[in-house]
Amino acid sequence: MDTYFRGNSQELAFCESIGAGGNHLAAATAGGQRLGGDAMLRLRETELRPALAEYHALPEEKRIGGLPDPADAAAPKRPLPKAPEGGLVLRGYCCYLKRGTDGAWNKAQRFYYELNPDRWAAETQTDMLWLTRQELRSLAPRSWVLGETMSAPEPVRTRFFGTIGIDYMEGSVNALPVRSSELILTVEEIRGKEAVLQVRGVGHMGIAFEEHDREAPNSRGCEVEVAGKAVYDAEKGMFTRFDVAGVGKAWGNKMEYVRREIGIGDYPWRYGIAWKLTTGDSPMDRIPPYNLLHYGTRKPYFGASDP
User: Fold this and answer.
1) In whole angstroms, what is the distance from residue 89 CA to residue 123 CA?
2) What local confidence, expressed as pLDDT, does residue 19 receive?
């Protein structure tokens, strides 16, 4: 559930009754009984196991509980936006990287508050990217010949690189201005009504490395190079595959977060990005992009007007 209390009146009341809100977890039964005491929970076995044991010890009627009639609920005061109809929805992933002995980039095993005996892993972060139907069509082949190339328009590149192409392992980070970018899709294979596209691109975001002050508060910059495959189905008028990954490097001093809390000594440090197409069938797929919500950037997500 979204614990920033964006639900209807019944969902809001449920969250408030179990103390769910802000940047932490709350465990509860369906009937609204809080589990695990009043301590802040994290995704660790040491904290979740007692809550699970407490749940299994309850009689079934207390585990299940009852729900009020949804027809009696008042509409949300601030409803969540919905993805553009007929558009493209991608889920992005971000993690820290380190180079292995074989020269390949691997996920770095970093920890929050590394010197703390109670430390916990810096988990891979995730975010969403929404494109409108018109923006989706701007990436589709036009002449359907091998070697045809499509260059993503500037609004697509800005949103692609500036929101989920950045290093967002640091936590709550707003979109970065895109200084320069390129995103090219090339027809690699034609299979009936489907076109297999090679995707390649590069983005330069935030403050340039040569110009930044390492000690300046909230200074941020990064660059990333991406590659992948996409499949466009002309009959459906949609992409059926969009798998892209990239390796980037980041720099700056956002509240000294990287050095103070995660203890990364490399400078600039490396991060990895990956995107995949979602079906929109699960609640997780329907979470809006961070920079579209009220706690994201103040700039319009879709530009001058929403789709």
Assistant:
1) 22
2) 82
